[in-house]
Amino acid sequence: MIKITIIPGDGIGKEVMNAATHVLDSLELNLDYIYASAGYECFQKTGSTIPDETIKLTKKTSATLFGAVTTVPGHKSAIISLRKELDLYANIRPVKSYPGINSLFKDLDFVIIRENSEGLYSGLEDYTREGAVARRVITRRASERISRFAFDYAKKTGRKKVTAVHKANVLKKTDGVFKDSFYKVGEEYPDLEKEDFYVDATAMYFLTKPQIFDVLVTTNLFGDILSDEGAGLVGGLGLIPSANIGDKQGLFEPVHGSAPDIEGKGIANPVAMLLSTSMMLKYLKMEYEAENLEKAISAVLKNGKVVTPDLGGNYSTMDMAREVSKQI
Amino acid sequence: MIKITIIPGDGIGKEVMNAATHVLDSLELNLDYIYASAGYECFQKTGSTIPDETIKLTKKTSATLFGAVTTVPGHKSAIISLRKELDLYANIRPVKSYPGINSLFKDLDFVIIRENSEGLYSGLEDYTREGAVARRVITRRASERISRFAFDYAKKTGRKKVTAVHKANVLKKTDGVFKDSFYKVGEEYPDLEKEDFYVDATAMYFLTKPQIFDVLVTTNLFGDILSDEGAGLVGGLGLIPSANIGDKQGLFEPVHGSAPDIEGKGIANPVAMLLSTSMMLKYLKMEYEAENLEKAISAVLKNGKVVTPDLGGNYSTMDMAREVSKQI
Ligand SMILES: CC(C)[C@H](C(=O)O)[C@@H](O)C(=O)O
Ligand SMILES: CC(C)[C@H](C(=O)O)[C@@H](O)C(=O)O
């Protein structure tokens, strides 16, 4: 039995998580789910957005499925705490066109690898007399680690090119370190093509020539922005999964939030959560099941009938999950 | 006679500047051009990318037209120095669809107001033992100043809504200051609608519902990224002008760079430079001429014949400039 942690969270997080466990159940894998709390409701019950038991548990299991949480203003973010506590330093965000989706581009398939441990997420901010200052920390260690991760990922998945994204013309020192680390590590991968662009140019190329991208690697906040832009390219956040990977654990979450506006209606699109589940299975070396799950999701989208309202259908979250199970 | 500084710069900067002065000449305005140097060639001649005389001159004239410069690695950026020296704290970047342009959206007309004096452009970066750290400085003074500028701009141009873009869920202190300043100043503008989004969500909304935007106001680097994304929405950098505005001077520049790859061929698209020139005329209170110039550019684009190769035509930079003059 492989133990995994399940953190449904708040709002539609819980609803899409039910869809995920339904589909996982139907795969009849040897998985043992252990539920844990985090987020807004958890804060109301326990006074913490991310209790110690939850963190301890995630450290004991090799994978965590995370739904979505509602922010509690002034309190620490559950997901950012988990990324830090488990040192989940690589955030993988695929940008892939699926059939049957109303999107700007139909032929995209690239992956953004976001450094997930430092940069402007270092939590080093202070008020000053005039306002406030945040520190953007870029280390050689983290830059080389994420570059190596990106090159290894490209190699393993048969991709050809890795593009580093930075703003070294303005952030000459911090992004200088990032860029130099990228090319230094890149020397160990002679078969992969390397290039680098400024983040502003990249934000434009996503629209004018997105087909040139294969694997991108970038610092934390640039990755945050570009991956949401990437989501917009292929139909919006309802479809975008992500993997947060460390040396010991992986945490898998849809990029969308808890969506309080549609909470309780049972109509949340489960695709991002199901694709995140597929990424988890791949991480757990159940490649065959991971691929079958992704194919089943793709088939349901292509068919376009049993889908949630945001995709033009009349079906519920669980209807769609059952349809995916049927297609597997 | 109104004196203006002309800085052609490098590469196609010089070519599109010739187009701009040609069109300005044909308007027969009372303008006196004073030429000044900056950029790569200037560095080779004088040892400085932005000589003191150039800065002094721009301080004496009320407006500067700036072409584009090639970066000299390791030396200060001419444009960033000018923004700082003249305290050009507001960068106005329109995102507008023009007829005849092959673009993702045909109906966009919004404006990004980018804070141009601080944030990650403060130049406060240091190497550390582990790598480097950059300081993102956000002050109440600059945040209120740019918010006021954005609200005033909205009022003056008959727009209805101002959207603040930030990342206050992660940069709680710095972007907390920015967001609070926005709403505080906003109270003085009861007739304008206000809203705020996270920068990542905004990068997605640009693609999924760009029509909701009217005036956006944001910090320096977010404005840099979003305005290039905005350029991508309406056909690319060849069309995007910008205005850098301070309390005493204005500097007007195309968002594109010096494009060494097409330098000397005479085929650079002059539209971004000509639209920047129109923004300058508006700033100099020559509203009538500014509008006529913009209409003429629009007509030439709509007609789609006498245009440069990037727009599908066979004409040169100067051919296109002459056609614009003819249409005025
Ligand atoms: C919720 C927020 C803290 C988070 C981030 O900024 O990383 C989210 O936008 C994401 O992309 O996972
Ligand atoms: C050239 C560069 C320093 C500049 C910036 O980052 O501001 C450019 O990208 C811009 O948008 O004007």
Brief description of this entry?
Chains A, B: Belongs to the isocitrate and isopropylmalate dehydrogenases family. Chains A, B: Pfam families: Iso_dh (PF00180). 2 copies of one chain form a homodimer. The first copy, chain A, has 328 residues and is of the alpha/beta class.
Account of the protein in words:
Two copies of one chain form a homodimer. Chain A has 328 residues and is of the alpha/beta class. Chain A has two domains: 1-91 and 237-328, Isopropylmalate Dehydrogenase (3-Layer(aba) Sandwich), CATH 3.40.718; 104-233, Isopropylmalate Dehydrogenase, CATH 3.40.718.10. The first copy, chain A, has eleven helices and twelve strands. Chain A has helices at residues 12-26, 40-46, 52-60, 78-85, 140-156, 174-186, 199-208, 220-233, 271-283, 287-303, 317-327; strands at residues 2-9, 31-35, 63-68, 90-96, 109-115, 125-127, 131-139, 161-166, 193-198, 215-218, 241-245, 250-254. In chain A, the strands form two sheets. A ten-stranded mixed sheet of chain A has the order 2-1-3-12-11-4-5-10-8-9, with helices on both faces. Chain A is globular. At the A-B interface, β6, β7, α5, α6 and α7 of A face β6, β7, α5, α6 and α7 of B. One 3-isopropylmalic acid (IPM) sits between chains B (77, 79-80, 224, 255) and A (169-170, 200). Chains A, B: Belongs to the isocitrate and isopropylmalate dehydrogenases family. Chains A, B: This is NAD-dependent isocitrate dehydrogenase. Chains A, B: It holds the Pfam family Iso_dh.
